[in-house]
Design brief:
The structure holds 2 protein chains of 2 kinds. Chain A is an alpha/beta fold. Chain A has 4 domains: about 30 residues, no CATH class; about 100 residues, Immunoglobulin-like (Sandwich), CATH 2.60.40; about 70 residues, no CATH class; about 180 residues, Rossmann fold, CATH 3.40.50. Chain A contains 12 helices and 15 strands. In chain A, the strands form 3 sheets. In chain A, strands 3, 4, 6, 7, 8 and 9 form a 6-stranded antiparallel sheet that branches. A 6-stranded parallel sheet of chain A has the order 12-11-10-13-14-15, sandwiched between helices. In chain A, strands 1-2-5 form a 3-stranded antiparallel sheet, with no helix packed on it. By secondary structure, chain B is mostly helical. Among the domains of chain B are: about 70 residues, no CATH class; about 90 residues, no CATH class. Classes of the chains: A alpha/beta, B mainly alpha.
Chain lengths: ~400, ~230
């Protein structure tokens, strides 16, 4: 209605030069509603998991009072007509593209864009055809991660094969793992139990799996030394896995009759409930040795400090970088991140597994080289912007997807 | 056979989960294995609850030291299960008014929600509060100046501690602008952003590589110790 009035007023101005009549309308062009975009296009985002469509539009030369663009979508209805319009985004006027996410990869969508300003909204401009967010074969943005995983895996496999061919694999000494036998021996001499906590997460966490593998070695040593090992767990599935592991270790040690399933018990899934039980148990039973191997959060320090207060020898291992300082401060030995992950291979001493550690080291060497190259390029790019270093740094970032 | 079946299940599920992160066509396969894990974990919970009941009942019947705590555990365990399954005091879901037990067990006003809000939350908060004292005692031990490294650690901790309090601003606020980088509040930010971040990232890169190698060992069936002794 406002558009019609404006046009009519302009014509009147030209025809009759009646300034007094049309002045309020002619003198203030901002009073007219914004101009709609000239065209709207929608295209499926390539190399994604489906669910995203990129919408772009061409704004008119004169936008009028427009301050934002309102982008809306609508699923095509069963009757072929578009359904209710849902807001995708409201973006600044300088923007001419946006992405609609979380869409179904099977439904076709219509899009429309409206210019919104202080004087109201323009009429919407619709996309000429419906668009579907197709699911692609591969998620393109994960290519750098995929390549990195493939590279590390290739290194690991190469060194495993090299180890099988008899190539010697020297791995540095890990003090925390060397101390396991002494720690178990101490418990035997003192006639006190060993406490093993495999974290507070379930078996779908790789740290729990790593903890259970260490438990296999510790329980075998305990069986050989005739020491008692207690394994409180905070997940039922971990309890079952721990029972299997400990039973197999006792069998391997030739003492299946000494295995007691009740010493591997489920306590509770509740984080601090579990900590309360374990801490109380530690204070009452005073285990000579405590192992904390798995995924820990805030409870790490409570457990380690309680163990310290009763004078237990403590060996911890976790890949939670935020909890490592607590374990380092309160425990006698700590397996830091990758050492914890390497524990199973280190303890087994099998050439295959030792080879995988070498592969891990090769991955580390590649990461180190990339870091050094990146630091050098970033330094030179900062010193002389726009030169070769800037271009090379951009290329490196592109390759790494950062 | 006892070890081959779980190993192959782990290998197939592991590769399916890995592929589902990169290939959208296999997304549903990854979700299916995730659901299977949840079902298995739920079934295992029955075993866990059985273990809890068995151990505590045995403790009570043998009159072991502290058997009174076992009685409390069993009573609380039973009450929570009965209240949760019975949905006592839970308001009906208006969407399914015809169904008497349609409300969520955690719904506001129910007995289960009351136990959670007025028993579990205060108890867990009490345990969490203990952390403050443990942090102090651990810091006291960790920051003893025994050797050069410990002195460096102590000095760094001192700078961070002061830099994050008003004491730091008061102590070094007089430094001129050209030396503002040496003010304790700026120094602590610099230490956290440069030294701490660099060290932390190094550990994280090591962890990521370790996780990849460990996963590969399990997926290739080289490391089987998680199923029992690897020997």
């Amino acid at each position: 209605m406002q558009i019609i009035l404006s046009v009519a007023a302009a014509r009147m101005c030209a025809a009759t030069a009646c300034a007094a009549l049309c002045a309020p309308l002619c003198a203030s062009p901002s009073a007219s509603p914004p101009t709609p975009p000239l065209s709207v296009t929608a295209a499926d985002v390539p190399w994604d998991a489906g669910g995203s469509i990129e919408i772009s539009w061409v704004p008119a030369a004169n936008l009028g009072s427009a301050t934002t663009w309102l982008v809306e979508r609508s699923e095509i209805g069963a009757d072929g007509t578009s359904g209710p319009w849902v807001t995708v985004a409201e973006v600044a006027i300088a923007t001419t593209t946006t992405t609609a996410a979380k869409l179904s990869h099977t439904a076709p969508y219509w899009f429309r864009v409206t210019a919104v300003g202080s004087d109201g909204s323009s009429s919407p401009t619709n996309s000429p055809a419906h668009t579907t967010a197709h699911r692609n074969f591969f998620i393109g943005e994960k290519l750098p991660l995929f390549s990195a995983i493939l590279t590390v895996c290739a290194c690991v496999i190469y060194f495993i094969l090299a180890a099988r061919k008899g190539r010697p694999m020297k791995v540095r000494r890990i003090a925390a793992l060397e101390a396991i036998d002494n720690a178990v021996g101490r418990a035997t001499e003192m006639g006190r139990p060993i406490l093993f906590v495999a974290g507070i997460q379930d078996m779908d966490n790789i740290q729990t799996v790593a903890g259970i593998t260490v438990l296999g070695h510790v329980s075998k040593t305990a069986a050989e030394y005739d020491a008692t090992i207690e394994v409180p767990t905070s997940r039922s599935l971990v309890m079952e896995a721990a029972r299997e592991t400990v039973q197999a270790s006792y069998l391997a040690a030739g003492r299946p009759e000494a295995y007691n399933a009740d010493l591997i018990r489920y306590i509770t899934d509740e984080q601090f409930g579990f900590v309360a039980y374990v801490s109380g148990r530690m204070v009452r039973e005073k285990p000579a040795t405590c192992f904390y191997m798995g995924c820990f959060y805030a409870e790490s320090l409570i457990l380690a400090e309680t163990g310290n207060s009763i004078g237990a020898i403590q060996i911890a291992g976790t890949a939670e970088s935020s909890q490592l300082p607590f374990f380092v401060a309160a425990c006698d030995y700590t397996l830091i991140g990758e050492e914890f992950m390497a524990a199973s291979a280190y303890l087994s001493g099998e050439p295959d597994q030792m080879g995988s550690l070498k592969g891990q080291d090769a991955g580390k060497a590649i990461a180190s080289v990339l870091i050094i190259v990146g630091v050098v390029l970033a330094t030179f790019a900062a010193l002389s912007p726009g030169g070769f270093a800037t271009a090379a740094l951009g290329a490196l970032r592109g390759i790494l997807g950062s | 056979m006892r070890r081959m079946v779980p190993m192959w299940i782990a290998i197939i599920a592991g590769f399916a989960m890995l592929l589902s992160a990169f290939f959208p066509m296999t997304e549903s396969l990854g979700e299916t294995f995730g659901d299977v894990f949840n079902v298995v974990a739920a079934i295992a919970f029955i075993l866990g609850a059985g273990s809890l009941a068995k151990v505590n009942l045995a403790k009570v019947s043998r009159r072991d030291p502290g058997w009174g705590f076992a009685v409390v555990t069993l009573i609380c365990f039973t009450i929570t299960i009965v209240v949760g399954l019975g949905k006592f005091g839970v308001p009906q879901n208006p969407q399914f008014a015809a169904l008497p037990w349609s409300g969520e067990k955690e719904a506001e006003g129910g007995a289960f929600a009351w136990i959670y809000a007025y028993a579990l939350v205060p108890i867990t908060a009490t345990m969490f509060a203990l952390l403050a004292f443990y942090v102090a005692s651990a810091a006291f031990r960790a920051f003893r100046a025994k050797n050069l490294e410990a002195i460096l650690l102590l000095s760094t901790a001192f700078i961070i501690l002061l830099g994050r309090t008003f004491a730091g601003v008061v102590l070094t606020g007089w430094l001129p602008d050209w030396a503002s980088g040496l003010r304790l509040e700026n120094l602590s930010v610099y230490i956290m952003q440069v030294f701490n971040t660099a060290g932390n990232r190094a550990i994280i890169i090591g962890i990521a590589l370790g996780v990849s190698a460990t996963s590969l060992r399990i997926l290739l069936g080289i490391d089987r110790s998680w199923m029992g002794s690897g020997d």
